[in-house]
């Protein structure tokens, strides 16, 4: 099979892709801090093994002023002091929604509520949902053959 046989989302599902991009635009204009969105998207992409998204979110985070040492240690965020309590709560929430859906989300939500309002938590949850979807779409389009 040639590269042209791969899933080409923009060509095969243009309206769906437009919708996904529109959701990202809404989230970018929403109440969640851009720096936190970058950290969450990067961490979820690391977990999901999406090299394309890791590269993209590293670049975007650097462009928006995130420090390289913090980006380097994001993968071990639980074991370093680089991240604020609010960032830690958001990262724990993102990881739970990505890998441990059966986990007790009540305690994680309570920790989030100490730092974020309902609109920010909703935006964070939507951002986590979207990046999980994007990771899977990118892996499928870069590796799947149809």
From TrEMBL:
<dbReference type="Pfam" id="PF02627">
    <property type="entry name" value="CMD"/>
</dbReference>
<keyword id="KW-0560">Oxidoreductase</keyword>
<protein>
    <submittedName>
        <fullName>Alkylhydroperoxidase AhpD family core domain-containing protein</fullName>
    </submittedName>
</protein>
<dbReference type="InterPro" id="IPR003779">
    <property type="entry name" value="CMD-like"/>
</dbReference>
<dbReference type="InterPro" id="IPR004675">
    <property type="entry name" value="AhpD_core"/>
</dbReference>
<dbReference type="InterPro" id="IPR029032">
    <property type="entry name" value="AhpD-like"/>
</dbReference>
<keyword id="KW-0575">Peroxidase</keyword>
<dbReference type="GO" id="GO:0051920">
    <property type="term" value="F:peroxiredoxin activity"/>
</dbReference>
<feature type="domain" description="Carboxymuconolactone decarboxylase-like">
    <location>
        <begin position="14"/>
        <end position="96"/>
    </location>
</feature>
């Amino acid at each position: 099979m040639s590269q042209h046989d791969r899933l080409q989302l923009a060509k095969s599902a243009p309206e769906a892709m437009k919708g996904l991009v529109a959701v990202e635009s809404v989230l970018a204009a929403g109440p969640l801090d851009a720096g936190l969105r970058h950290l969450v998207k990067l961490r979820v992409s690391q977990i999901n093994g999406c090299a394309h998204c890791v590269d993209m979110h590293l670049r975007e985070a650097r462009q928006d002023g995130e420090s390289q040492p913090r980006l380097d240690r994001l993968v071990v965020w639980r074991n370093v002091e680089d991240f604020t309590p609010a960032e830690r709560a958001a990262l724990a929430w993102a990881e739970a929604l990505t890998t441990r859906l059966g986990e007790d989300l009540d305690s994680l939500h309570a920790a989030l509520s100490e730092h974020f309002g309902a609109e920010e938590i909703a935006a964070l949850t939507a951002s986590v949902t979207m990046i999980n979807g994007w990771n899977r779409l990118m892996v499928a389009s870069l590796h799947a053959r149809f």
